[in-house]
Amino acid sequence: MKNRLEELRKARGLRQEELAEALEVSRQTIGSLENGRYNPSILLAFKLSRYFGLPIEEIFIYEEELS
Questions:
Q1: DSSP output for 1-63
Q2: Could you give the CA distance from residue 48 to residue 66 in angstroms, rounded to a whole number?
Q3: How far apart are CA 1 and CA 8, in angstroms?
Q4: Residue 32 — very low, low, confident or very high, per pLDDT cuts 50/70/90?
Q5: Are strands 60-61 and 2-3 parallel, antiparallel or unpaired?
Q6: How far apart are CA 24 and CA 10, in angstroms?
Q7: What are phi and psi of 58, to 5 degrees?
């Protein structure tokens, strides 16, 4: 799953630490999300959606794997 988290965070002039504090997660969590190494829990996805005022689908892009 891809995401626009880094783009959205930078557009607001936020550091990873600031976003992490606002969402009550670690800076490492934000970094892992931005690098695609971690998929958020549904709760964190909703927190991000509310924080940025965007639907979850505009932050996270799900791409099905073709078999």
A1: -EE-HHHHHHHTT--HHHHHHHHTS-HHHHHHHHTTS-PPPHHHHHHHHHHHTS-HHHHEE--
A2: 28
A3: 16
A4: very high
A5: antiparallel
A6: 19
A7: -90, -5
Q: Which residue has 């002039």 as its token pair?
A: 13
Determine the pLDDT at residue 67. 67
The residue length of the chain stands at: 67
Q: Which residue's structure tokens are 């936020």?
A: 14
Confidence of residue 62 (pLDDT cuts 50, 70, 90): confident
Q: Which one, of 29, 38, 33, lies nearest residue 5 by Cα?
A: 33
